[in-house]
Specification:
With 498 residues, the chain is mostly helical. The protein is 73% helix and 3% strand. A 3-stranded antiparallel sheet has the order 1-2-3, covered by helices on one side. A two-stranded parallel sheet has the order 4-7. Strands 5-6 form a two-stranded antiparallel ribbon. It is globular, with a radius of gyration of 23 Å.
């Protein structure tokens, strides 16, 4: 499949010349297809998950419990990206780590496909572990394909790779969602496993086109470090096993005994990691200042993702219960709403890229803080818009599907204002000592946001209530105004980073 998309290189002097993938190294085709199928499996399962949790034919849980499980699962995926990067750096290297990740993800989806309720959470755990291992490393391998950060094809290569992500994310709810909702939930999860299997086969067959650097373990563990790491891991696993065995035998175990510790970890670990980097005495004055500025962006991103990721839980569950999911009289599966964001991303991302360049040429491009402020205000506006269908439902009527499409549209515009900018500024502001770890730190902002949503749901807060939605919307707008108000102070802290 990859070879049919290749063409001849335009220049023999170009690094990686020869047969190329749209002018890029052949390995990009392998990573493009691997990520597309992995995202197909991930977003398909993600679209089904909250609906399966509340469905009478599924686990038939309350909306609050379903939102808690969904949010904790997402926070765990992004939390595990940090140790996923460490595992590749110290144990297997990116290439073998991604291969292992694909197997783990596939096994997780197959476990979810089993009809036994007792295996469900084990399947979720496997998918989270595999996603954490893969997410931290496949983008690294894209970077390995190019001749350093100044390779003129590098940014274009990541853009092509990003298209693969959104193609998989767009197709998944339409295929997996339809099968899961209309045929059988477990068939849907099995289809997600098939998607990951296709991605894994593609990766193994095409891995010969990857850079040799992707097979290197940058800083391998010494024998002493291996023994120490295994001993510590075994001790912690034994503690957890004994603890949950005691709780189970005592008869007091509930799902919250599992959800609460993970949720608290999702809030505490990001704070600890940021604080540890901030206090590091090896950082010079400029790096310390940039980290102070980065705290602003990190907190802003956490607030943004707290609301944004509810598009797959709070908004989706509302659509399932209270929306008229029809277009011109034709009814469609609720999971199809999850295809709205990726198709809008593919349509609007080039527009935003053109806009920033056009404004830059005129000397009027907004600064990073201003873009973050806009993203926060827009995500808040999406939840203010959510109040309209909530009010319609409170009046005993079904809300039109276009209200929800409007919510996803505003959220997508906010995402394009904040997320790519956040990725870029993270790499620019990273202290030299933590250059390879800062992308994992950025993902921790997602963990913190989703963990907050999970904690609210565990506490019994109904996130589909008008008052709570208004409060979240107001929080985002106030945070956006605060970032904009202090943008000059943040700019000074950023130093020479723009």
């Amino acid at each position: 499949m990859a070879s049919s998309l290749t063409k001849d290189s335009v220049s023999r002097e170009t690094p990686g010349s020869g047969r190329t993938f749209f002018g890029h190294p052949r390995g990009l085709a392998t990573l493009f297809m691997t990520e597309m199928w992995e995202r197909f499996s991930y977003y398909g399962m993600k679209a089904l998950l909250p609906l399966y949790l509340v469905a009478p034919g599924g686990l038939h849980l309350s909306a609050a419990t379903a939102t808690a499980i969904y949010s904790v699962y997402l926070s765990l995926v992004y939390l595990l990206a940090l140790p996923g990067g460490w595992f590749a750096d110290r144990v297997l290297g990116p290439r073998r780590t991604v291969a292992v990740a694909g197997v783990v993800i596939m096994l997780g989806h197959l476990t979810l496909a089993l009809p036994a309720a007792g295996t469900f959470y084990a399947g979720l755990g496997l998918v989270a572990i595999g996603s954490g291992l893969l997410k931290a490393n496949i983008s690294t391998m894209v970077g390995h394909l190019y001749d350093g950060p100044d390779d003129p094809r590098r940014d274009g290569g990541f853009t092509v790779f990003y298209i693969g992500i959104n193609l998989g994310a767009f197709a998944a709810p339409l295929v997996i969602g339809t099968i899961g909702e209309n045929v059988n939930w477990h068939f849907g999860f099995a289809l997600a496993a098939l998607g990951m299997a296709l991605g894994l086969v593609q990766f193994l067959l095409g891995s010969r086109h990857l850079s040799a650097r992707s097979s290197v373990v940058p800083t391998p563990l010494s024998q002493r470090e291996k023994r120490s790491t295994l001993t510590k891991a075994a001790c912690w696993a034994a503690v957890a096993l004994v603890f949950y065995a005691v709780v189970g035998v005592s008869g007091v175990y509930t799902l919250n005994w599992l959800l609460v510790p993970i949720t608290v970890a999702g809030l505490v670990i990001p704070v600890v990691v940021i604080a540890r980097i901030k206090r590091d005495k090896d950082l010079d004055a400029a790096e310390q200042s940039r980290m102070s500025a980065y705290v602003w962006f990190f907190v802003a991103a956490a607030v943004f993702w707290m609301i944004y990721d509810q598009g797959g839980s709070t908004v989706s569950l509302f659509a399932d219960a209270s929306a008229e999911n029809t277009v011109f009289g034709w009814e469609f599966p609720v999971s199809w709403y999850q295809s709205v964001n990726p198709v809008m991303i593919m349509a609007l991302a080039p527009v935003f890229a053109w806009l920033w360049l056009a404004l830059n040429r005129r000397g009027r491009e907004p600064g990073t803080a201003t873009k973050f402020a806009a993203g926060l205000v827009l995500i808040g506006a999406s939840f203010f818009l959510f109040l309209a269908p909530l009010s319609i439902a409170d009046g005993g009527h079904k809300a039109a599907a276009m209200w929800l499409v409007g919510i996803y549209f505003v959220q997508t515009v906010g995402e394009l204002a904040l997320s790519p900018v956040g990725l870029s500024v993270t790499t620019k502001m990273a202290p030299a000592k933590y250059a390879s770890q800062m992308m994992g730190v950025w993902f921790l902002a997602v963990t913190a946001g989703d963990a907050t949503t999970g904690l609210l749901s565990i506490a019994g807060v109904d996130l589909n209530k008008t008052g709570i939605v208004t409060l979240e919307a107001a929080l985002a707008v106030v945070a956006g105004v605060a970032v904009w108000t202090y943008r000059k102070k943040v700019k000074v802290l950023m130093g020479d980073v723009r």
